[in-house]
Amino acid sequence: MLALRSTLFNTAFYANLIIRMILLTPIYFLLPRKKAFNIPKRWARSNHWLMEKIVGTTFEIEGLENIPKTGCIFAPKHQSFWDTYALLPWMDDPVYILKRELTWIPLFGWYVMKQRMIPVDRGARGKVMVEVMRRTKIEMDKGRQLIIYPEGTRRPPGAEPHYRYGIARIYRDTQVPVVPIVMHPGLFWPRRSTMRYPGHFKVRILPAIQPGLDPDEFFNQLVETTERESDRLLLETIEANPNLPVPPIAAKRIAELKAGKEAVQATA
Prior knowledge:
Blueprint: H1 2-30, H2 33-36, H3 38-55, E1 57-62, E2 72-76, H4 82-85, E3 94-99, H5 108-114, E4 118-120, H6 127-140, E5 145-147, H7 166-174, E6 178-183, E7 199-205, H8 215-240, H9 248-267
Parallel strand pairs: 1-7, 2-5, 2-6, 3-4, 3-5
Antiparallel strand pairs: 6-7
Helix pairs in contact: 1-3, 7-8
Pathway: Lipid metabolism
Pfam family, one: Acyltransferase
Organism: Rhizobium oryzicola
């Protein structure tokens, strides 16, 4: 039954994407850019509804009050395709730095470019990266929120952190708050898998790290805060979903965290 529900959801998810793109494209490209962004935001909400009704997966967001009223950088943990779109309805005017190959996809690439997303060649250096940074600052000076995944790519729940220093350079150059976000959608929508699992999880938006820190100090604070809160939320998520199958990497990390807690309690 779980495999059937996963298949039904995956079919509905991609059908929802393709049909909306085809039917709403004329409206999308006639609307002003920011108003047109309501179409992807509604698409995201419809996916949440599909996942709840077909799979039985729900979520809640904590810490919305931590989102600054001005331009900022969102720095979420990245585990699943889910977290690439799921928070759009709660963001005012987000901008992504993304792989340039995504802009080549028919329809999808056109949607991306209308929103002035910033394509980048991941292997680029020098002048190309200077241009990417220049465009990023232009968009953020307009009050937009940059979404950047500090680890660069999807990582399974419980995996050892692998943060990239690029976010510290962007923090230094843009001088805006950085908002860490922790969540574990990878337990319910695993990467490289077609399975979708029922349950309930939290997205936790942490207090912003304010501008003005030395880049190294900022980077260390971001990693320490995000990983501490991510570990705490991992334990909470597993405790709240006792029937959820736990992948080996997550199980190993959970065992380490529980052993650490027991050691602290034993010495208290």
